[in-house]
Amino acid sequence: MELAEVLKRRRSIRLYTGEPIATSVIDDLIDAATSAPSPLNSQPWHFHVALGTARKAVGEAVAQSTRFLEEYASILPAGQLEKAAEFYADLGNAPVVIGVSVPDSEDDVERTNRLVAAGAAIENLMLRATDLGFGACCITAPRWVIDEVKAALCVADDRVLAGLVLVGVPAEEPIPTERRRDAVTYLE
Ligand SMILES: Cc1cc2nc3c(=O)[nH]c(=O)nc-3n(C[C@H](O)[C@H](O)[C@H](O)COP(=O)(O)O)c2cc1C
Asked: Residue whose CA is closest, atom 4 of ligand 1?
């Protein structure tokens, strides 16, 4: 697929068929992710691929976050709470959940650099998933249960979990989300 087409087609998928994904596909997605740029080519990321029992454990940890959703409701569009609760109850039936972690740092610049690199890797991964006909969604909301999620993904205490990426065969075709047109200033 042309890059422009992939960019247009990528949507956050929150409902999956549950069909398993071949390891060769996951390897391909990780290859795409690790092609991302990083400061001084430090490649600070680590990918924690949860399948089978581990995927179930991550799902159970995230499901606990539904009891905190009332707090999240204030930032959700009206009427979205029920949908969000349903989604977090089993991560939309995604067969694969990939945690992306980076080493923590006391230094703000270093921490930001690492998280930006992780973000670039996550986007590469999601675009490649779209390119191959799969769906993906990056999530960070289950922060209330972050310790439980990190434990389920075997992320060491000295690392930050930048996000979770769900991957699977889409069982929904979301309506494209609106984009702001005022997000640029040209300076001469
Ligand atoms: C850093 C980051 C965190 C996100 N966290 C969540 C999340 O916790 N839950 C969720 O449902 N979607 C999450 N999303 C997906 C966004 O809601 C989604 O990208 C946005 O609404 C635009 O829709 P689109 O991805 O379909 O274009 C996150 C996206 C990013 C980049």
From this structure: 139
Measure the CA dihedral 138/143/148/149, to 10°.
10
Dihedral-angle region of residue 52 (phi above 0 means left; psi in -120 to 50 means alpha; beta otherwise):
left
In this predicted model, what pLDDT tens digit does every residue of 26-44 receive, in sequence order?
999 999 999 999 999 999 9
What would the pLDDT profile of 176-186 be if each residue is shown by its tens digit? 889 999 999 99
pLDDT value of position 76:
74
**Is there an atom of ligand 1 within 6 Å of 138 CB?**
yes
Structural domains in the chain, CATH included, are 3-168 (3.40.109.10)
12 Cβ below 6 A of ligand 1:
yes
Q: Which residue owns the Cα nearest ligand 1 atom 10?
A: 139
Residue 73 has pLDDT above 90, yes or no: no
